[in-house]
Design brief:
This protein is an all-beta fold. It has one helix spanning 58-61, and strands spanning 36-40, 45-46, 64-65, 68-76, 79-85, 91-97, 115-119, 123-126, 135-139, 144-150, 157-164, 167-174, 178-180.
Length: 181
């Protein structure tokens, strides 16, 4: 009643999330980790929507990181999930080889749920959930997708994997458009 606490003081200790066990299929869906930033000044590097050259490459197969400020969320094997601005005031999130990431950054391996989901209302997929979402394509109702993670900057997006024109692709959709199975 008088505002006095018992005990008189409390110590809170923050522990950063450790590598821990990877979620099993059907387990909880993780949130993408906070990003780190760096400046890139190297030669142009191809950017893919997923971790490898088998994935769709946005911008009609011409997506490149040319330079500037880059956000990196983490690694998926030997590939880094990055975001970068485009000269036309748009943004792109995709993957580059981890060799692009400066050696002094401590970048974690990403932990994805790989949980099966079903599109419950027509969903538009984007690789620009940051600045001005532009839709790469629409995913019809009933399509089975893999939910990888949710984002934490707007609490709006589900990060998913699907197939488009025979190629695997990763991107963001409004998370109310997908139901985890």
């Amino acid at each position: 009643p008088d505002g006095t606490t018992k005990p008189s003081h409390v110590v809170f200790t923050y522990r950063a999330p450790g590598p821990g066990p990877k979620p099993q299929p059907g387990g909880d869906i993780p949130i993408l980790p906070a990003y780190q930033s760096f400046s890139y000044t190297g030669k142009a590097v191809a950017v893919y929507t997923g971790p490898g050259t088998k994935y769709l490459r946005a911008n009609s197969g011409k997506a490149n990181l040319g330079g500037g400020r880059v956000r990196v969320w983490g690694l998926d094997g030997n590939w880094a999930l990055i975001g970068y601005g485009l000269s036309n005031n748009l943004y792109r999130v995709g993957y580059v080889p981890k060799s692009v990431i400066p050696a002094n950054l401590q970048v974690p391996q990403l932990v994805f749920a790989r949980r099966q989901g079903t599109i419950v209302s027509k969903a538009s997929l984007t690789d620009d959930p940051i600045v001005n979402p532009t839709w790469l394509f629409e995913i019809p109702v009933g399509t089975k997708v893999t939910i990888l993670a949710y984002e934490n900057w707007k609490d709006h997006w589900a990060y998913i994997e699907t197939v488009y024109n025979g190629k695997p692709v990763r991107g963001f959709i409004n998370k109310i458009r997908v139901r985890a199975n």
